[in-house]
Design goal:
Layout (H helix, E strand, L loop, with lengths): L1 H22 L13 H4 L4 E7 L6 E8 L4 E9 L6 E9 L5 E4 L8 E5 L2 E4 L16 E5 L12 H4 L3 E7 L2 E2 L8 E5 L4 E5 L4 E11 L6 E11 L10 H10 L2 E4 L3 E5 L5 E7 L1
Antiparallel strand pairs: 1-2, 1-8, 2-3, 3-4, 4-5, 5-6, 6-7, 7-8, 9-10, 9-11, 9-17, 11-12, 12-13, 13-14, 14-15, 15-16, 16-17
């Protein structure tokens, strides 16, 4: 009788152990990729480049990735249209933290492998493009931040002056009765002027620094708006306004102002009027 009680007790302990083991399975370890682009690189920022195009010269591309998971993509089909196409949304990382995919649908959905200051566009199967044309599928990061240098604040000569346009995209601009010009309003940190047909205005951001090879100041215009007058003949209005939108830096002296894009290409030149 005593032996039977001992046997039943042992059986009860064994059942309890089995139930406890089944109810608390060992957690499975999630894959970890400590050297992923997402965790190891300073990846957020603006990337620019010219991607191959089947029916145009190239696709001029500007992709901005933000740390909060949003993107802005601007594209222009060179040789086919001068208009920029803009889209925005959220992007997602792949499981390894190496590829970002834009929130697009259909066959045009884009994905990029993230490297050190460079993005490689992937093909429709999600693979890196190989061969002789591989380098053409890259977007390179633009260094927006610049170190301060010991130069005087240029606002003393920039503000309080009417700057008359003398050249646009490398071509001279003939002076008109009412020339294209810009003015900087220091008290409001705004820009205003005449674009050849309409009055325009917007915000200006100006920082000391050395953003291009020749040295200069970092400058950008935003929230641009203009009147809606209809004009006849060549006014240079649209390419001039586009140049303002693309401006990222400037060179300035007492009598001349030159605006540059992100690749240090001269967009517009002005003389103090």
């Amino acid at each position: 009788m005593q032996f039977g009680v001992i046997l039943l007790s042992a059986a009860a302990l064994l059942v309890g152990f089995c139930v406890s083991t089944a109810a608390e399975p060992m957690p499975s370890a999630a894959p970890s990729y400590p050297d992923s682009s997402r965790s190891a690189l300073d990846w957020d920022g603006r990337y620019v480049g010219r991607l191959p195009c089947a029916d145009c010269e190239a696709i001029e591309t500007e992709l901005t990735l933000s740390a909060d998971g949003h993107y802005v993509l601007r594209t222009r089909y060179l040789g086919r249209s001068e208009d920029w196409h803009r889209e925005a949304g959220r992007f997602v990382w792949d499981d390894r933290g190496q590829v970002v995919r834009l929130s697009q649908d259909g066959p045009d959905a884009k994905a990029f492998f993230v490297g050190e200051n460079v993005l490689w566009q992937l093909d429709q199967s999600g693979q890196r493009i190989r061969g002789n044309l591989a380098e053409r599928y890259q977007l390179h990061k633009i260094q927006e931040e610049v170190d301060a240098v010991d130069t005087p604040e240029p606002g003393a000569s920039l503000y309080g002056t009417t700057w008359r346009l003398t050249a646009l995209n490398g071509q001279p601009v003939v002076a008109r009765e009412q020339p294209i010009h810009v003015e900087f309003v220091e008290s409001e940190q705004r820009i205003q002027g005449f674009s050849g047909c309409n009055r325009f205005f917007g915000d200006v951001r100006l920082d000391k620094g050395k953003p291009n090879e020749a040295g200069g100041i970092a400058i950008a215009f935003s929230k641009m708006a203009m009147t809606r007058m209809a004009c006849e003949g060549e006014t240079h209005e649209m390419p001039f306004m586009q140049a303002l939108q693309e401006t990222r830096s400037a060179l300035l002296n007492e009598t001349e102002l030159v605006l540059f894009d992100a690749s240090s290409r001269a967009l517009a030149s002005f003389e103090a009027d």
